[in-house]
Design brief:
The complex is a heterodimer of chains A (108) and B (822). With 108 residues, chain A is an alpha+beta fold. Helix content of chain A is 56%, strand content 15%. Chain A has helices at residues 11-19, 26-36, 45-58, 81-107; strands spanning 24-25, 61-67, 73-79. In chain A, strands 1-3-2 form a 3-stranded antiparallel sheet. Chain A is globular, with a radius of gyration of 15 Å. Chain B is an alpha+beta fold and 822 residues long. Chain B has 24 helices and 22 strands. In chain B, the strands form 3 sheets. In chain B, strands 14, 15, 16, 17, 18, 19 and 20 form a 7-stranded mixed sheet that branches. In chain B, strand 3 and strand 4 form a beta hairpin. The chains are: A alpha+beta (108), B alpha+beta (822). Chain A binds chain B through residues 25-27, 30, 45-46, 49-50, 52-54, 56-59, 65, 72-75, and chain B through 1-2, 5-6, 9, 19-20, 22-24, 26-27, 30-31, 40-41, 45-47, 49-55.
């Protein structure tokens, strides 16, 4: 399966969506997105961490240190109320744009 | 909220970075387990990318630039010291001017200066800078726009304590609220109190300015409570006032008639009080003018003679620049800015010169991936650092300069040169402007990668030469005008003239009584041995001038004199005759008037339109009106009784007029004890005027010298730069048999055009400023080839000296070494 770059601007939405199922650490987020997209979407580490930092700054997620299954200290991210709101917003926005694009593609 | 978090990130940067590092390390480990060997990328780079989200990268870069800049500057102390010196001079001169202006505008200490307004009477037909005391009282009682109204009358009186002999001293009569509103404090004792000091029958008190108190009372606190005599009237000293720039005695305005006997100031409706007011909160000056207009209209119904139709009190915020001074201020600002221009262009040239040596460094940086913007920013940060250092030194320098100026130009208590936020803001602004103007162009040039010879250098050089030449030429012109002033003969014998101003109108003298007094005084003075001649004149020479504009559009100065005037001042009669005693309707004009008005005709018997009179005589044009205007158009009319209360006695003596002052005073007071006559010699006034011109020439000359020195530094740098840049080429030329002088010529040739352009620009600039100043300054000629020529010669000489050392270096270039160079 060839790797596909993410559509710009959707990374934050995907992360928010994945975190909606519960707190997760950085690596797990990347894995989860890959799994759910059946290996179509890969999240580069180079874009994951800047995105996470931005979300922290915006207050959409909170980070806390915990212990992993392998008894290692890891930082996991948890969605906040603001994050949930942002997710709804972005999903709606995305759907809107998507429908518009689809419409154009069908017409032309 | 987001910005709060950002700041939190900034404060906890270290810890957060460590956390991120750990997190990423774990990520990598996990990845290594799952999909062996996949690259995670440069860990450092990834962290940097993530960190950039925090929004503090610029701070890191700034810090990098600053520390790098500081390192670069520290490594070349010679350049740094030169640059900071040049800058501190340039910025310092500008800053001093700004600070002088700031203190002029807003003497420190005035509370809420924005609500303080200066009141003058205005109407569509005319204006009066003073307000009569009864009017002031009227507005004080009625106008709701004003929280308080302050009045002040400046005059002089003979002051002394009970025993000591009197000396003439400045006295200011003020309303009691004046001190608090003007932000003046008492050093000892108390200020005036409206309740006690302005009450009817209050004990007369006086305050001393600190300067006066220190000089005359030796700073003894016991002076408070003791008695001072003003014009012989005892007043109790109630306090010592800290009043910068003022060197006088302060007395409640209501006590003016007590000190000046017979004065009608308080009941007189014809003016005389300088008025200020404090606006009520929220009231604009315009609103107050509306109100005073309505009040004046109602007052005019009662006193139609004293109030002009449509009159109002013009309320000008006290911290606003006076428009009449605006032209002078603009010229002063231009001169000062020229020094800044010289300093900045100079530094620009030095930076360009240094750039030659740093080209390699910059190329390497850019080759390693630094963007042009980043390098420009770094180079500009260096300039900012230099400008900050320069500004700091300039601040110190300007404080010293202000102190010097204060002690030099005013004899009163110097205004403390303190640094407030306005001064700080001015310093930073000037520093920033300087940094942009000298630093940006070299930084852009250096990173452009284009061939070396740049327009920046030509522009800098031209500007620098032009700016320094303007200053040099202007000081040349001023020195020449000063020479002319000294060499000028005012056209009459001023060296032995004393003027006695009895001040009759202050003491309630009316026309006939005043005339009688003056005649008697003249008899008494003539009886004093050594006195040769005496004449009664309305306006004493070089004092007030009364002038009218004739229909032809030129201003004529008029005076009223008796028949002794021409003889006393030794103004030569060219044609016709002198006045006869009691003659009316006659006029004597100066030759210049005759030439203007009736060219080629006989002026005698002609009717003079201005001032009305038949011309009976023509005199040599003489500077009896105004020392500073050459060739005044002057006309003299017979003295009438109506002129007498304001008239003076002009006396010619054998020997020094100063020796007669005491006897003249005694003579004047012998006729009326109450009078406080002012006696002075004309030549002291002349010397003062000369002193003013001399100081002006010195100041501009000082600026010109500074600019030339700065220019010399820049030029030495530029020549050195050219030589170092072209060492190889010079070597080749030498190897091919060029002689030393040819090489020097080749090095200097590219500078010839900008220098020539600079001379031309400088000449134009100097001529423009000179023609603007021409009316104000005696004997200033706009076209004075000698002044321009000398300035150019001096500048060229200094440039030659500055270029000498680098040029010698060029001549001594060893061809074989030069070819191995680089």
């Amino acid at each position: 399966m060839p790797k596909t770059e993410l559509v710009p601007g959707t990374l934050v939405m995907l992360i928010l969506r994945v975190l909606g199922q519960g707190p997760m650490h950085g690596y797990a987020i990347a894995q989860r997105i890959r799994q759910l997209s059946s290996d179509v979407l890969t999240v580069e580490e180079g874009s994951l961490y800047p995105a996470l930092q931005k979300m922290l700054l915006k207050g959409w997620v909170k980070a806390e240190w915990g212990v992993s299954d392998t008894r290692r200290q890891v930082r996991s991210y948890r969605l906040t109320a603001a994050g949930r709101k942002q997710l709804e917003l972005e999903v709606a926005e995305y759907g809107h744009v998507n429908r518009a694009i689809q419409a154009v593609l069908k017409m032309a | 909220m987001e910005w709060l978090r950002r700041i939190w990130y900034l404060l906890n940067r270290r810890r957060l970075e460590r956390e991120m590092e750990r997190e990423m390390a774990w990520h990598r480990e996990m990845m290594g387990e799952m999909m062996c060997g996949r690259r995670f990328g440069s860990e450092l780079r990834l962290r940097e990318d993530a960190r950039e989200v925090w929004g503090w990268t610029w701070l890191d870069r700034l810090w990098q630039d600053l520390s790098c800049g500081a390192r670069v500057l520290r490594k070349s102390p010679g350049f740094t010291v030169t640059a900071v010196l040049v800058l501190s001079v340039g910025i310092g001169v500008t800053l001093t001017a700004v600070r002088v202006l700031l203190t002029e505008l807003r003497p420190p200490g005035i509370p809420n200066p924005e609500t303080l307004v200066h009141l003058t009477r205005r109407s569509p037909a005319g204006h009066d800078t003073t307000v009569a005391y009864p009017m002031l009282e009227f507005y004080r009682a009625r106008a709701k726009s004003f929280q308080s109204v302050m009045g002040r009358v400046d005059s002089t009186a003979m002051a002394g304590d009970a025993a000591e002999a009197s000396a003439q001293t400045g006295v200011s009569f003020v309303t009691a609220n004046y001190f608090l509103e003007m932000g003046m404090r008492a050093a000892y004792g108390r200020l005036l109190d409206p309740a006690t000091d302005e009450a009817p029958g209050a004990e007369p008190v006086a305050l001393l300015s600190r300067q006066l108190w220190e000089r005359r009372w030796g700073g003894d606190p016991a002076a408070i409570g003791s008695t001072i005599r003003l014009n012989g009237k005892p007043l109790r000293i109630a306090g010592i006032v800290i009043s910068p720039r003022e060197n006088n005695v302060w007395v409640p305005l209501v006590k003016q008639p007590y000190v000046v006997e017979g004065s009608t100031l308080l009941s007189d409706w014809s003016g005389g009080v300088q008025a200020h007011a404090r606006l009520r909160p929220g009231v604009s000056p315009q609103a107050s003018e509306q109100e005073t207009k309505a009040l004046a209209a109602s007052l005019r119904e009662e006193r139609p003679k004293d109030i002009m139709p449509g009159e109002w009190l013009d309320a000008k915020p006290a911290d606003r620049l006076d428009f009449e001074n605006a032209a002078a201020a603009a010229i002063a600002a231009t001169l000062v800015l020229l020094v800044l221009v010289v300093a900045c262009t100079n530094l620009g040239i030095l930076l360009l010169a240094r750039g030659a040596a740093r080209e390699r460094e910059v190329r390497i940086r850019m080759a390693l991936g630094a963007g042009r913007r980043r390098v420009v920013r770094q180079l500009f940060t260096e300039s900012l650092l230099l400008a900050s250092l320069g500004s700091l030194c300039a601040l110190l320098l300007s404080s010293t300069a202000m102190h010097m100026l204060e002690t030099r130009f005013s004899r009163a208590e110097p205004v403390p040169a303190h640094v407030d936020w306005r001064v700080a803001a001015a310093t930073m602004t000037i520093g920033l402007i300087a940094a942009v103007s000298f630093g940006l162009a070299p930084a852009l040039r250096l990173t452009s990668g284009a061939p070396r010879a740049g327009r920046a250098r030509t522009v800098f050089l031209t500007l620098q030469v032009a700016a320094s030449c303007v200053l040099l030429m202007l000081s040349g012109l001023l020195v020449r005008s000063f020479e002319r002033l000294i060499a000028t003969d005012p056209g009459f014998d001023y060296r032995r003239i004393a003027v006695i101003q009895p001040g009759l109108s202050d003491h309630g003298y009316r026309d006939a009584a005043a005339l009688t007094y003056l005649r008697n005084l003249r008899e008494r003075v003539l009886a004093i041995p050594g006195v040769e001649r005496a004449s009664v004149v309305w306006l004493a020479p070089w004092g007030n001038v009364y002038s009218q504009t004739s229909r032809g559009g030129y201003r004529m100065s008029l005076n009223h004199v008796d028949a002794e005037f021409l003889e006393t001042l030794r103004v030569r009669l060219v044609r016709g005759r002198n006045f006869e005693p009691g003659e009316r309707d006659a006029a004597i004009v100066s030759e210049s008037v005759a030439r203007w008005q009736w060219p080629g005709e006989d002026p005698l018997g002609k009717r003079l339109k201005v001032g009305n009179g038949t011309v009976i005589g023509v005199v040599r044009s003489a500077g009896t009106f105004n020392l500073r205007t050459e060739d005044t158009l002057g006309a003299y009319f017979p003295l009438a009784a109506g002129d007498a209360p304001g008239s003076s006695l002009v006396v010619r003596v054998a020997g020094r007029p100063e020796d007669y002052v005491g006897r003249f005073r005694a003579a004047a007071r012998g006729l009326d004890e109450r009078l406080q006559p002012n006696v002075h010699s004309l030549h002291s006034q002349y010397d003062e005027a000369i002193g003013d011109s001399l100081r002006l020439a010195e100041t501009v000359g000082g600026l010109g010298t500074l600019a030339t020195l700065l220019a010399a530094i820049g030029l030495a740098g530029l020549t050195g730069y050219t030589v170092s840049q072209r060492t190889r080429e010079i070597g080749v030329r030498m190897a091919l048999g060029a002689r030393g002088m040819q090489v020097v010529r080749a090095v200097l040739a590219p500078m010839a055009r900008p220098v020539a352009m600079g001379f031309a620009g400088g000449m134009l600039g100097a001529a423009a400023i000179a023609s603007a100043l021409h009316k104000e300054i005696f004997g200033l000629r706009v076209l004075d080839p000698l002044a321009y020529g000398l300035a150019v010669a001096l500048f060229l000489a200094v440039m030659a000296l500055a270029a000498w050392a680098p040029a010698r270096r060029a001549m001594r270039v060893n061809p074989s070494e030069a070819l191995r160079h680089e």
